Amino acid sequence: MPAATRAPAPPLARTPQQARRRARRRTSPWPYLLIAPAVVAGVLLLLYPLIRAGVISVQHFRMGELIRGGATFVGLDNYRELLTGEEFWSVLLRTAVWTAVNVVLIVGLSTGVALMLLRLGRRMRVALMSALALAWATPIIAATTIFQWLFQSELGIVNWLLDIRGYSWFADGGAMFAVLVILVVWQSVPFAALTLYAGLTTIPVELFESARIDGGTSRQIFTKVVFPILRPMFALITSLEVIWVFKCFPQIWVLSQGGPDGATTTLPVYAFKIARVLHRYDLGSAVAVVTVVILAVALVANLRRMLRQES
Amino acid sequence: MRKALLNGAALVTLALTIFPVYWMVVTAFKPTRDIQSDTPSLLPVNPTLDHFATAMSAEGFWSYWRNSLMVTGAAVLLALVVSLLAAFAVARLRWRGRGVFVVAVFAAQMAPWEALLVPMFIIARDSDLLDSLAMLSGVYFMVTLPFTIVTLRGFLDAVPIEVEEAALVDGATRFTAFRRVIFPLLAPGLMATSLFGFITAWNEFSFVNVLIIKDQDKRTLPVWLSTFRDVYGTDWGATMAAATLFALPVLVVFLFLQRRVGAGMAAGAVKG
């Protein structure tokens, strides 16, 4: 998901409960007709692909089956191949490092920016917020293209600033990884910072003042006052960022295609590579299923939080 | 002293945040010899529109533009209509299975789309829907649908039921009450969700990359931009002009609407 589409969690309010209405409407077909289009769409375009991924992952499904059909059931062979291969584990480890580095940087930096916004004067604050909105709105592929230009070896401005003209960031695994981290962090901080700032503004000023009168240092105020109040919001942002960074695909695919030498191949890139490049649709689907299972852990935590608010 | 330090830090943050976008625009307006000079100048000293002309005369530019608009428009409109119906059922009616439906919508909102590239490709291939803009619109519609339902439902909840009942008492039909009374109150919600849908569909890259394979004419702008350099190689001026043209609609829409819906979205984020 592009940074700009990271929609904040929408407002949830309780439906007015009216026993009278409930009794009257229980048997009406209208609710079901109204949700029918949404349900049909969800079944066809979300549930079915999910199930299909599961089915292909237990089949022998390669180039031949793609063209002629007639895939055969092979049980857990694909999973066995995947889990006993070395590559999968190194990809998984890389994905974990990728997620951890990005999320720590995003949450840390956006907390700093949000606290900064709170203390700035009006003009400076509006300027910084507008800049953040601009970065937030920049489309992923546009930003990715810009970063190719910024880090270009001969003419890129980064190499000029660092006085290392001619150095290729895209040829070295570690450097490529770093460029991708910078790109994703740059794209993700605005949403997180603006959301945290919106949360900070809901804390009454008196709380800060009384904490300061009581002799609290800035650090104490943050850990004892701000953090406990904003804890649910930190949890929300961290879990959203974990999901987004973990499944991030277009930036990596466009900048490095998982290279050089697999140095930036994370799980989604790996699934795509073995499916579309090696035509191992079966193995690619197995990776997809594993990705869904791993994400499900983060998703369930999120879902529980949403449902707590719902009830 | 502290104040100066704070403002200094803010200026650095501001510069880092805005520089990539600034550099895109500046490069797009610089003549090629300035772009290739040994010392890059931070301002477009001799501004030119040549690169925009190159980008716009690139093969297929207008058809990619049209494809992007069509796919985005179809996805947004479809999502609005379908989710308005569902949101109404959730917010205003009581029925068995409502809770299950709400949970399903929440879960769908977090669907791991990136993991579904492979099965989606196979399904499209089996159903003869590869290289089809309709399939692409369908996917984008589904990606934005859950968020649209949840948001519109939130806005519907905020419209007091008494307002609607008053209209019913005055003799309006349920449909008229909806159209004349609720719909206008929903306007900010419709705007916020359209904005979200527009940005999602306009920016989407992974699925076009997978679903539009042979028929290059069916590609959308993100794919065009990502392959631009295959054709134009080291013409960074034209590449940045292309990126600017692609980003412009989103930036304009975002900055225009952000002020209006921003408050609502921020409030939602706080509650979430």
UniProtKB/TrEMBL annotation, chain A:
* Lyase listed as a keyword: no
Q: Where is this region: Disordered?
A: 1-22
Q: Which PROSITE patterns match?
A: ABC_TM1
- Bilayer topology term: Multi-pass membrane protein
Broad class of where this protein is predominantly found: membrane
Annotated GO biological process: transmembrane transport
Location of this chain's protein in the cell: Cell membrane
- What name goes with this protein? N,N'-diacetylchitobiose transport system permease protein
Automatic annotation (TrEMBL), chain B:
Which parts pass through the membrane? Answer: 69-93, 100-122, 134-156, 181-202, 236-257
Q: What is this protein called?
A: N,N'-diacetylchitobiose transport system permease protein
Chief subcellular location:
membrane
Residues of the signal peptide: none
Q: Which organism is it from?
A: Nonomuraea dietziae
User: What SUPFAM superfamilies does UniProt report for this protein, alphabetically?
Assistant: MetI-like
Q: Where is the ABC transmembrane type-1 domain?
A: 65-257
Protein's UniProt keywords contain Transcription: no
GO BP terms in the entry: transmembrane transport
Membrane topology of the entry: Multi-pass membrane protein
Annotated family: Belongs to the binding-protein-dependent transport system permease family.
| GO annotations of cellular component type | plasma membrane
Q: Carries keyword Aminoacyl-tRNA synthetase? A: no
Which domain of life does this protein belong to?
A: Bacteria
* Entries under InterPro entries matching the protein: BP-dep_ABC_trans_perm, MetI-like, MetI-like_sf
- PROSITE patterns, per this entry? ABC_TM1
Q: Which Gene3D superfamilies match?
A: MetI-like (1.10.3720.10)
Q: Which UniProt keywords apply?
A: Cell membrane, Membrane, Transmembrane, Transmembrane helix, Transport
Q: Where in the cell is it found?
A: Cell membrane
